[in-house]
Specification:
mainly alpha; globular
């Protein structure tokens, strides 16, 4: 949340903001890509405590570098921070958050369910269970770096719309795979398309706050992060009880059709209306008046 808010505040140009957030999301993908082989190698040859100790040292070094390079400070502005209630009730922000949630639900549902499906139906070996997600990680890294800038050119709403359609198509194709190698293309498509959605909708959240609220970004990226986490919370739930009752192909295909059903809503982000300066000023005056009345009542 703080990282995305800092990037949105530092890069005020819409195109530069998209590039910066695409690179940041690419760092997330790189961590996901390196993490499993890194942890497995250290666990195998140095014991179970080694990965955690090394990560703790790296995290400490990263924090020290941020303190030295970024030089955190407090800058006061006249802009009133929009409340979470105002942001969460904004329909355009809701559409962005919904796209992030639905896009990430697919991979979150596959993470626990696909390995079981591969063991039951394909007789896969253990190394193949983890390797099945490698194409998604690599393609996510490519997608986030490509569509940070490309999404601005073609329209971020259109990039996210295409991304949801690709996710839906690939999810429907996953149950048709009968061999582990047949999962390479659909899993790569899912990872690439999630990168399209994430790298398009995250900058769009900052753009919507600039247009319709005040340029204070902490609240809106808290909502974006909640939407991201919600996808990874709902996905495993679907892969647990519902897969057991309805079957893996039905749930995966159903989620694919959900992606198709949601994608038309992104058309609303084509040209979101901006709140006039007068409306923003009236809101700030109302906030100052309420604060003054609260101070007076407290003194009395």
């Amino acid at each position: 949340v703080s990282g995305m808010g800092m990037l949105a505040d530092r890069y005020t140009d819409n195109k530069e903001r998209g590039n910066a957030m695409g690179i940041a999301l690419g760092g997330l993908a790189l961590g996901v890509l390196i993490g499993p082989p890194f942890g497995g190698f250290l666990f195998q040859f140095f014991g179970k405590t080694a990965p955690f100790l090394i990560l703790a040292v790296l995290a400490l070094l990263d924090g020290c570098l941020q303190m030295l390079i970024l030089v955190p400070g407090v800058t006061k502005t006249d802009d009133e921070a929009p409340s979470l209630k105002d942001l969460a009730s904004d329909p355009y922000i809701q559409v962005c958050a919904g796209a992030i949630t639905i896009a990430n639900m697919g991979i979150a549902m596959l993470e626990p369910a696909l390995p079981l499906h591969m063991m039951d139906r394909m007789g896969s070996e253990k190394w193949e269970l983890g390797a099945a997600f490698l194409p998604a990680s690599v393609s996510y890294l490519i997608g986030t770096n490509m569509f940070g800038s490309l999404g601005h050119r073609m329209g971020r709403w259109r990039a996210a719309q295409i991304g949801l359609a690709v996710i839906g198509t690939c999810l429907i194709l996953v149950p048709f795979a009968t061999e582990p190698h047949e999962l390479i293309l659909p899993m790569a498509g899912i990872g690439f398309a999630i990168g399209m959605v994430d790298s398009s909708m995250m900058p769009e959240l900052g753009n919507l706050v600039d247009l319709r609220h005040s340029s204070v970004y902490g609240g809106v990226y808290a909502i974006g992060d909640v939407a991201f986490c919600l996808g990874f919370a709902v996905g495993p739930v679907l892969s647990g009880t519902m897969v057991k009752n309805l079957g893996f192909p039905v749930i995966v295909s159903g989620l694919g059709f959900l992606c198709f059903a949601y994608s038309p809503f992104l058309t609303y982000l084509r040209d979101p209306p901006a709140r006039s300066q007068m409306e923003k000023l009236e809101k700030q005056v109302g906030w100052f008046c309420n604060s003054y009345l609260e101070i007076v009542q407290f003194r009395e």
